[in-house]
Design a protein that fits this description.
252 residues; alpha+beta; Jelly Rolls; Arc Repressor Mutant, subunit A; 2 domains; five-stranded antiparallel sheet; four-stranded antiparallel sheet; sequence-specific DNA binding
Length: 252
């Protein structure tokens, strides 16, 4: 059985996953960039983020952060442990968002962070107290504007021949890599790297159909040093070969 309460250090390394249990992440020191269900926020001291069960999320902390994490065991545990508070806790855990803590809640988080949370009894009772104290909490509003696709596409097109990373697009969008990754998954159903690859290949198809450039030259212009790797990528994306795409264009 996984621990209910743990202390965790976060770094610039991007974490992207989902899990079949609800989770609360309480800020202790530093700032943790978070994206849950395509919505961005930052977890700092006196705040937390709610991650419902099964929700895709991403996080990372460029300058490092320390957090107290509550992994809720399951719905049965909520009913048995929270009693009359159970329904309020279920409602809280069903809605992704960032919440601010009042002075009393912050003191409780700080006390637990300095306690032996690896002790099962302290972890159990501490988790119950934390959830009960949040019964009337309401998520803060979080940003919801769409990504700047025109600027992102222009950047990909301009540098299609060069190595591109998630951090490159994050700078264009004015977001952290964690936020950008989750926003792409929520809005497009694909990762930023998948988006870059697809954009490059569509640019390549346009060149195949509208120019007489050698296929190897086109491959190089969209970031492929190997013509065979380029052909394999085109086949995966479009179900046909670069040569056939060019011939089809010539037949029209």
């Amino acid at each position: 059985m996984r621990p209910i309460l743990t202390l965790r250090q976060y770094t610039e390394d991007l974490i992207v996953h989902s899990h079949e249990h609800a989770q609360l992440v309480f800020g202790l020191t530093g700032a943790l960039d978070f994206e849950v269900d395509g919505r961005g926020s930052q977890v700092v001291q006196q705040s937390l983020v709610v991650i419902p069960s099964g929700f895709h999320h991403a996080c990372g902390s460029p300058n490092g952060s320390r957090c107290l994490v509550l992994d809720v065991p399951d719905d049965q545990w909520i009913g048995q442990s929270l009693g009359e508070h159970a329904e309020a806790s279920r409602r809280l855990l069903d809605n992704a968002g960032r919440l601010s803590l009042d002075a009393g809640q912050s003191q409780l988080v700080s006390w637990l962070a300095n306690s032996q949370v690896d002790d099962p009894l302290i972890a159990q009772q501490g988790a119950v107290l934390l959830l009960a104290s949040l019964n009337k909490a309401r998520p803060d509003s979080v940003g919801g504007r769409r990504l700047p696709y025109d600027a992102l596409n222009a950047h990909i097109d301009q540098y299609a021949a060069y190595p591109l990373q998630v951090a490159d697009l994050a700078r264009v969008a004015g977001l952290s890599s964690a936020r950008l990754h989750a926003r792409f998954v929520a809005e497009c159903g694909q990762t930023p790297m998948d988006y870059i690859r697809s954009r490059r290949l569509h640019k390549a198809v346009a060149l195949l159909r509208s120019s007489d450039l050698p296929i190897g030259e086109i491959a190089s212009r969209v970031g492929y040093s190997s013509q065979s790797a380029f052909a394999a990528a085109v086949l995966r994306e479009f179900g046909t070969s670069p040569g056939k795409l060019r011939r089809e264009a010539g037949d029209k």
